[in-house]
Design brief:
Layout lengths: L2 E10 L9 E9 L2 E6 L5 H8 L7 E6 L2 E2 L6 H7 E4 L11 H11 L7 H10 L15 H15 L3 E5 L7 H17 L3 E5 L3 H7 L2 E5 L6 E4 H4 L2 H8 L3 H16 L1
Parallel strand pairs: 3-8, 3-9, 6-7, 7-8
Antiparallel strand pairs: 1-2, 1-4, 4-5, 9-10
Helix pairs in contact: 3-5
The protein binds adenosine-5'-diphosphate (ADP) and magnesium ion.
The site of magnesium ion has 4 residues, from α1.
Length: 255
């Protein structure tokens, strides 16, 4: 397995943080679809930001496709490798979404550009109805689907997303994430994401990176990480509770 992103003895502390979130973390993220899971506050978002070269380690190094993130000159160079979707991402523009989608596609890294691809992505992310509207005039879910579409239209090789579908309906979450995962696999790209629901994470990913409160995260194939005993140790509660919590949460959201 080829490492797309490598953490070498990387440490990170927030400016206002009392203790380091990571202390000498070593990690090789493989190509493919990797879900970041674990309890709240265990470092998933921080690790995603570091993997994208947005949060820089205070010591050690993070390499994206062999290039140290400290060597990336600017945002444009970073975007060539990585697109990042922030948790709760917002953005406002004066232009209608259809124009912004077109702009993102034209300024991106696809070798050949075709109207068909733009149309296809618009359809896959169910954006036909919002093309003439501005980002500030659409629902949270529509905005999330727009942002997901941007990442495929722009054409970075590595997509990193922090809870990118939390505002979508359950069916849409599954549809969008499985479309993304299939796209990424068939184009030899990588997708690293976190999602609130374990079942969604498991069904889309090839690998999981499980975060703990008191030790370094564990990487493995989903079949291994989603073993009951492994999850129970990391979450500190029986898996039956974990599943019940998830279905309660789903029912709460859908009803
Ligand atoms: N901006 C910040 N300033 C200080 N501490 C932070 C900040 N963001 C996160 N943390 C702390 O860093 C740790 C890891 O947080 P985070 O990466 O957000 O975890 P997760 O995404 O798994 O919930 C937590 O202890 C959290 O409180
Ligand atoms: Mg988080």
């Amino acid at each position: 397995v080829t490492a797309e992103i490598e953490f070498n003895n990387a440490s990170f502390t927030y400016p206002e943080g009392e203790s380091p979130v990571f202390n000498g973390l070593n990690l090789e993220l493989p190509r493919g679809v990797v879900t970041f899971i674990g309890q709240n506050g265990t470092g998933k978002s921080t690790a995603l930001l570091m993997a994208a070269g947005i949060a820089r380690p205070e010591s050690g190094d993070v390499k994206i496709k062999g290039i140290s993130t400290s060597q990336l000159r600017d945002e444009t160079e970073r975007h060539r490798y990585v697109s990042f979707i922030y948790q709760n991402m917002e953005f406002e523009t004066e232009d209608p979404i259809g124009d912004v989608l077109e702009f993102v596609y034209q300024s991106g890294h696809h070798d050949k550009k075709s109207r068909d691809f733009l149309k296809d992505i618009t359809r896959q992310f169910e954006l036909e109805q919002v093309l003439s509207r501005k980002t500030q005039d659409v629902s949270k879910g529509e905005l999330q689907r727009t942002i997901l579409a941007f990442t495929l239209l722009y054409g970075s090789q590595i997509l990193i997303m922090d809870e990118p579908v939390f505002a979508l309906e359950q069916k849409q979450k599954e549809a969008m994430m499985s479309y993304l995962a299939e796209y990424v696999r068939s184009h030899d790209m990588s997708l690293y994401f976190s999602a609130h629901e374990l079942e969604l994470s498991r069904s889309c990913a090839d690998f999981a990176l499980l975060f703990y409160r008191d030790k370094a995260p564990l990487l493995g194939p989903v079949a291994m990480i989603f073993e009951d005993e492994v999850l129970e140790e990391a979450y500190g509660i029986p898996v039956s509770y974990l599943k019940r919590k998830e279905s309660l949460y789903r029912n709460m959201l859908s009803g």
